[in-house]
Specification:
Strand content: 15-25%
Low-confidence stretches: none
CATH class: Alpha Beta
Distance between the termini: 6 Å
CATH architecture: 3-Layer(aba) Sandwich
Strand order of the largest sheet: 3-4-2-1-5-6
Shape: globular
Number of strands: 6
Structural class: alpha/beta
CATH topology: Undecaprenyl pyrophosphate synthetase
Oligomer: single chain
Number of domains: 1
Radius of gyration: 18 Å
Mean pLDDT: 97
Helix content: 40-55%
Bound molecules: 3-methylbut-3-enyl trihydrogen diphosphate, magnesium ion
Number of helices: 7
Order of helices and strands: EHHEHEHEHHEEH
């Protein structure tokens, strides 16, 4: 597997079940991020993308949004030494423009500090929306055409993909969503077109390394065909 994408869902309901605040749930979610990232790194999967804050999550109560921003700030500062130790490069898809300055600065510090790491890329999807990703690419392509740098007939899937936030990365092989919800919630709409989907009935803060092993096991057992016949295909790498 080259790329695992995860919709980390269920922090709020985990907290509610325990009688904790939603922010406590997100705090425990950050602990799970550490655990799962380490396992994915150990498994040698080169790309991990975590849906951390969506373009729609701004609709949440101000206090929860502020709490998530603080948590992200703390995560970046505290996690940088571990990321360096494990050779993990931090990258952001989406944007930091709408984030508080202190949060954006903490994320940028961590990106800069880990820029040389080649063991794995950890993409945090922040202020990320799949439609927004596609629209930005459309605008960038359109402006190239307008300026005469690109011919319309040269716009193909590869070229378009190179304008998306995941440029240069393979599409996710597996999309995992926790909490039992079975929807994409505007995540990586273009990139997930042929990904295997796995929805598991577990709150994100309850995720363990062995859940990742199980998910990878399920993936290996899937038959991907990409439109071909079963006989044309080799087992999943
Ligand atoms: C996922 O957990 C974290 C973010 C979306 C930031 P939720 O906060 O969505 O948890 P539930 O879905 O309310 O349980
Ligand atoms: C998706 O989860 C976004 C993230 C995990 C960051 P949500 O909890 O926001 O999704 P919906 O609202 O249930 O679709
Ligand atoms: Mg949710």
């Amino acid at each position: 597997m080259q790329h695992l994408a995860i919709i980390m869902d269920g922090n709020g309901r985990w907290a509610e079940e325990q009688g904790f605040s939603r922010i406590d749930g997100h705090r425990r979610g950050a602990v799970a991020v550490r655990l799962i990232t380490t396992r994915v790194r150990e498994l040698g999967i080169p790309y991990l993308t975590l849906f951390s804050f969506s373009t729609e999550n701004w609709r949440r109560p101000d206090g929860e949004v502020a709490g998530l921003m603080d948590l992200l700030c703390t995560y970046c500062d505290e996690e940088t030494p571990t990321l360096l130790e494990q050779g993990i490069r931090l990258n952001v898809i989406g944007g930091l423009r709408r984030f508080p300055q202190s949060t954006a600065a903490a994320v940028e510090r961590a990106i800069k500090a880990t820029a040389h790491c080649a063991g794995m890329t950890l993409n945090l999807a922040l202020d990320y929306g799949g439609r927004d990703d596609i629209l930005r690419a459309v605008r960038a392509v359109a402006s190239r055409v307008k300026e005469g740098q690109l011919e319309i007939q040269d716009i193909d899937e590869a070229l378009f993909g190179s304008f998306l936030s995941t440029a240069g990365m393979p599409d996710p092989d597996l999309l995992l969503r926790t909490s039992g919800e079975q929807r994409l919630s505007n995540f990586l709409l273009w990139q997930l077109s042929y990904s295997e989907l796995l929805f598991i009935d577990r709150w994100w803060p309850d995720m363990t390394a062995s859940d990742i092993d199980d998910a990878v096991g399920v993936y290996i057992g899937r038959k991907r065909r990409f439109g071909c016949t079963a006989q044309q295909m080799t087992p999943n790498p």
